[in-house]
Amino acid sequence: MPKVRKGDHYNSPFAQNLRALIDEKGTKQKELGDAIGVSRQTISLYADGSTQPSPDKLSLIADYYNVSADYLLGRVGVKTMDVELQQVCEYTGLSEGAVKSLRNICLYYSKEASCLSVMIEDSNFIDLLRAIQIHVSKFGSEEAEPQSEDIANIATALDCTWDNARRFLKTSSRSLVNTIFAAIIKEIEKSQRQKKQDH
Hints:
Helices cover about 70% and strands about 0% of the residues. By secondary structure, it is mostly helical.
C-alpha cells in the first residue's frame, strides 16, 4: 500500500482501534509484528495511520486480537467476530457487554430473566430509565444537592413522595440500582402471585 504523510490518517478508525487494542492488551509492537510477520516499524506505521495493512495482514491482526476486521476498520462498533452477536448489538443498540450480560441472565437465572422481561415490556420502564439517567448524570457524586425541579421530575416519574424522590437523588448510583431492581422484582413476584390466586 502506498504511504501517506505521517498524521494524515492518525485518527482514522483503523489506526485508532489498533492503538486502543495495543493499549488495552498491553501488546508490544514487536510482539504483534512477530505474530503477523512484519517489523515493529510496520506496526508503528499502522498505528499512526501512515500506512494500512494488506487484507491478509488485517485478517491476522483481527485474529491476533480476536476481533472482527470490520471492527478494526470502524465499520461496526462491536469487537466480537460472532456475527449473530454483532447483529443483536446493531439491532438493539446495546453494547456487546450488555448483550452478553442479558444472555447470561437468560441462561442461568430464569426467575430473574422472567422478571426482566416483564419489567422491560412494562410501559413505565422508560420512566424508570429516565429517572436513573437523571440521577447518574446529575447526582453521581454524593456532594451534589438535588434541585427542586429535579426532585419534582423524579417524584412524578416514580410516582412517589417528595422526600422519597430527594432520597432517591442522594443515593449512590450502585446502591440505587440495587435497591430499585430489588423493589421491582418484589413487585413483579407479588403481581404474579396475585394472578395465580385470581385463577
